[in-house]
Amino acid sequence: MAKQSNFLGEFIKERKVVGAVLPSSKFLMKKMIAPIDFQKADVILELGPGNGVFTKGILERMKQTSKLFSFELNTPFYQHIYTNIDDKRLTLINDTAEKIDEYLEKHGVGKVDYIVSSLPFAVIPKEIKLTIIDKCVKQLKDDGMFIQFQYSLNAKKLLSSKFSQIKIDFSALNFPPAFVYKCKL
């Protein structure tokens, strides 16, 4: 597990990439992946896995035939996951989520069943944020779900403009506490 001090250091160095001072809790991980029907999910996309707590939770529950594509822009976090998680179902990508369509096409993936996002929308520039959300909407199956956590309700307006259904849950057992958005097309 990435040391908490490393998380804080990356937060200080990379304010436009890292949105948390501490790794997400297992309680938040469970809330984030609870809506996923792992028996039906063939392809899951993860954006901003950080230290890999959600990645591990997803891989523990995924079918052996499923695929997980995880995009981590921060190189130290990418290296941590690369070193500590060895699973043939995981494709770990050290690049921006703005390129999800390119990578999925390269791997012969049309659309995905679920998108689990930890991207810090509060610190990502508006143009980049809109590009990422638009590409997520395009890559998501009609009956799929986009699951996002944030530390405030500031993302509600943006997500409401892109998804027809949004349910918001709350995880008090995280520092800081977090809102979980479950979005459908």
Please render the helix and strand layout as text.
Blueprint: H1 4-13, H2 26-33, E1 43-47, H3 53-61, E2 67-71, H4 75-84, E3 90-93, H5 100-106, E4 112-117, H6 126-139, E5 140-150, H7 156-160, E6 165-171, E7 178-184
Helix pairs in contact: 2-3
What is shown here, in short?
By secondary structure, the protein is of the alpha/beta class. Helices cover 34% and strands 24% of the residues. A hairpin with a 6-residue loop joins strand 6 (165-171) and strand 7 (178-184).
Molecular structure report:
There is one protein chain. This protein is of the alpha/beta class and 185 residues long. The protein has one domain: Vaccinia Virus protein VP39 (Rossmann fold, 3-Layer(aba) Sandwich), CATH 3.40.50.150. Helix content is 34%, strand content 24%. The protein contains seven helices and seven strands; from the N terminus they run ααβαβαβαβαβαββ. Strands 3-2-1-4-5-7-6 form a seven-stranded mixed β-sheet. Strand 2, helix 4 and strand 3 form a beta-alpha-beta unit. Helix 2 (26-33) packs across helix 3 (53-61). The radius of gyration is 15 Å and the shape is globular. Residues 1-5 and 7-21 have low confidence and may be disordered.
